[in-house]
Each structure stands twice: as structure tokens, then as C-alpha cells.
């Protein structure tokens, strides 16, 4: 089978595909996690094929990218799913592809990101290479490596949102006998919504988060805020769709366009990794 043929979209039975929770940087995907995705796929179909590779286990293929789409397809009781087969990927390239999609789509909490970065280190990549390939700063990479030096219970608390980046870095710099004392102070302050711990004293206390259904004007206000900070993007288009000013067809086209951009960026990073391997 030629490389061109393997890059073509094919249909493969779900029963022939292995979803490896240990390989996936998100870990296990539960049905409740893909309920909304399943509804979207049922209405609009699959927007992007999943990526799989030949596998030597009890099933002939393993998922590289698209674990949530696979799980949603199973929830919908589909018999098969659109795939792109990639027999050309090395172990490190497969891991990088899996991590890149989730990081760029912001689908990971900081603990998942930290474990993903550690996995790439185990494959022999340096922190500098990881930052370059993931298009992330050295600070982003080092904060996740700092998190992995902390005890597992504190790592789990970071995943739950009890620690910000600066607090993680501060805790990682402490001797072990001071670590839990400072951490308890941070956690207690978080519970009390006191933002002064490990923050500049002049920084104002952040407003409380409120989860509620928004009216149309609030949607427009948020759209204007995003536009003023980073310009028009998929987020502003989604908010326009929520407010009823962007039709379904246009939003679906925008999502497909952004998906293709992500796929192109991922392929470019993999090609860059291959070129570096050739020259080392």
C-alpha cells in the first residue's frame, strides 16, 4: 500500500480498532465525556476522520488521534468510522501527534499536559524540542515539568484547579519539609477565595466565577471582549452562532477550516521532527 493510499480516507469497522487509554494523553474517555459530541456527530456527521496505525494486539489497528470521536461513534452504535491509516509513524511521532491535537485544542488539564510532556521526555526529546514542536514557550514546558516533581496528591489537586502556574513553580522550589505546609495555606486560601497567597499584594481579588445561562446581550459583550483581545476567531463565530447571527452551515464551515489548519500544523511539526532526526 502506497503512502498516498494510506493517507486517503477509508472506512474501518469500530470492532477492528483498539482505543489505548494508556497511550492517549487524555487517559480513559467515558461515555458521559462525549455526550455532546455524539449529538453533534449524529446531526452533522463526522467532521474529521480519526487517525489510526497498524497494531500487533488483538485488534489490527490502534487510535493515534480521535479517541473522543471513536467513543462517540460507539455511543451512536455506528458500525464503522472514517479513518486515515498511518503505518509510517514512529512511536515518538505517534505520541507527539496525539499530544499535539489535545494541547492545541485545549482539551487537557495541566496534569494531563504534564504527563504528556514527561512522556515525550522519555522518548528522548529535550524540553527545548518539546516546546518547539508543541509551539509552546519554555515557561509553559518547565511549569509542567515542575508539576511532575510534586507529590501525586498535589498533582491531582493541580488538575482540579487548586493551583496556578506560579504556585506550582513556587511549590516545586520548596524543601520537602515546607511543601505541604505552604500547599495547605494555598488550598485554604483558594477555598476562601483569597487570591493574596503567592500573588502580588497589589493584585486585586478576582471576581467570583458564575455559571449561568447568559442572555443575548451578555453573549455579544463576551464576543466584543474576545474580539478586542485577540481579534475575530472561531470563539467569536461560535458566540455569534449562540446569539443566532451565524447560521449552522457557516459555523460548520469555520470548524472544518480550523480543523484543517490544525492538521496542517501537526503535519508540519512531524515533518520538522523527521528532519531533525535525519540531521542528528
How would you sum up this structure, described in words?
This protein has helices at residues 3-7, 35-44, 67-75, 91-104, 110-122, 127-134, 138-148, 152-159, 165-172, 176-191, 216-230, 234-243, 248-278, and strands spanning 10-13, 17-18, 50-54, 61-65, 80-85. The chain is α/β, with parallel strands linked by helices and 280 residues long. A hairpin with a 6-residue loop joins strand 3 (50-54) and strand 4 (61-65). Helices cover 56% and strands 8% of the residues. The protein has a five-stranded mixed sheet with strand order 1-5-3-4-2. Mean pLDDT is 83; it is low at 1-5 and 194-198. The chain has 13 helices and five strands.
State the share of residues found in helices, binned by percent.
Answer: 55-70%
Order of helices and strands: HEEHEEHEHHHHHHHHHH
Mind describing the biggest β-sheet?
5 strands, mixed
Number of helices: 13
Low-confidence stretches: 1-5, 194-198
- Approximately what portion of the residues adopt beta-strand conformation? 5-15%
Give the tally of β-strands. Answer: 5
**Average of pLDDT:** 83
Head-to-tail CA distance between termini: 29 Å
**Rg computed from alpha carbons, rounded to a whole number of angstroms:** 21 Å
SS-based class:
alpha/beta
Sum up the overall morphology in one term: globular
Strand order of the largest sheet: 1-5-3-4-2
